[in-house]
Design goal:
The protein is α+β, with helices and mostly antiparallel strands. Helix content is 63%, strand content 10%. It is built from 10 helices and 4 strands. It has helices at 2-34, 43-55, 59-77, 80-99, 111-131, 139-149, 155-174, 177-199, 214-225, 255-265, and strands at 204-210, 230-235, 242-250, 270-276. It has a 4-stranded antiparallel sheet with strand order 2-3-1-4, with helices on one face. β2 (230-235) and β3 form a beta hairpin. α1 runs antiparallel to α5, α3 runs antiparallel to α4 (80-99) and α5 runs parallel beside α8 (177-199). The longest helix is centred in the first third of the chain and has 33 residues, at 2-34.
């Protein structure tokens, strides 16, 4: 029992450490780059930025107050465990925003640079928080709640609509359409960097190849790209003939070479290509890595 309690305390402290570091980077992105340059990057943080501009209320406090009713709804409809983790992260982030990040120097130069750097820092910060299964509340809770009532609406599209409303409000308050455009840039940078933090740079292309010359193609893959492959059993729906299907994964920079190999061996090959967001295992990222 004592070991179990110590393990839970250790996990909780580790979660708090990730939340603190992630909140510090996220807060730097907002208070040092986006907010001073009148950029509201969507979500609850964007709303808090607008409120701060209008009446001077601290961004962290506004962020916390907006999240309270959302967290209550999350507790009622999304479960206790999710709510507790979210509440912890929201409290830490609000504290860091108002009592630590306010002492970090502010950048008020090129607005595009501010949007990009702010978005990058925010993306790294959110990625670190999400690594431990926490969330920062806000539109994440709202999106999940709405999806429970309207599951036919994709959550990504739903969050985009909510962010678009915030960006429109920012353009009206700041009386500058460029505010919304730079906010969109910050959001895009944040999303791209966050995906890189969460899923790593070990992404690439997942490729399926169907050809009567699979043996030759596989050999060329191993020799010229130093990539292995898996042979799957397939059957044609029309002819009912048994067919081997090559499944392989390559980096995006290697895909052109793979395409060239297939074209040289069999110009009539059937090739399916899709994105592989994260690849774990031999020759790629260690599956035990954080």
């Amino acid at each position: 029992m004592k070991k179990l309690t110590k393990a839970r305390v250790g996990e909780f402290l580790l979660d708090c450490g990730y939340d603190f570091i992630g909140s510090l980077l996220y807060g730097m992105g907002i208070l040092s780059f986006t907010a001073p340059n009148h950029i509201a990057p969507g979500g609850v943080s964007g709303i808090a930025t607008i409120v701060n501009y209008v009446c001077g209320a601290p961004i962290g406090m506004v962020n916390f107050l907006i999240n309270i009713p959302l967290i209550v709804l999350g507790f009622l409809f999304l479960g206790k465990q999710f709510t507790i983790k979210t509440m912890k992260s929201v409290v830490i982030m609000s504290f860091v925003l108002d009592y630590i990040c306010v002492y970090i120097p502010v950048y008020t130069g090129n607005v595009l640079v501010a949007g990009l750097f702010g978005g990058v820092l925010m993306g790294i910060g959110l990625g670190i928080v999400f690594m431990r299964g926490s969330t920062t509340g806000g539109t994440d809770i709202l999106g999940r709640l709405i999806q429970r009532r309207a599951p036919f609406i994709p959550i990504g599209r739903m969050l985009f609509i909510l962010d678009a409303i915030v960006l429109t409000a920012a353009a009206i308050v700041y009386q500058n359409i460029e505010t919304a455009l730079f906010g969109l840039i910050a959001m895009f940078a944040s999303a791209q960097v966050m995906d890189s933090v969460l899923y790593g740079m070990e992404n690439g292309k997942l490729v399926y190849i169907i050809s009567p010359h699979n043996d030759v193609i596989t050999q060329e893959l191993m020799e010229r790209l130093e990539r292995s492959a898996t042979i799957l059993d397939g059957k044609g729906a029309y002819t009912r003939d048994n067919k081997d299907v090559i499944m392989t994964v390559v980096r995006k920079t290697e895909f052109f070479k793979l395409k060239k190999i297939v074209k040289e061996v069999d110009p009539n090959a059937f090739v399916i290509v899709t994105e592989a967001g994260e690849i774990l295992g031999e020759g790629w990222k260690d599956i035990n890595a954080e």
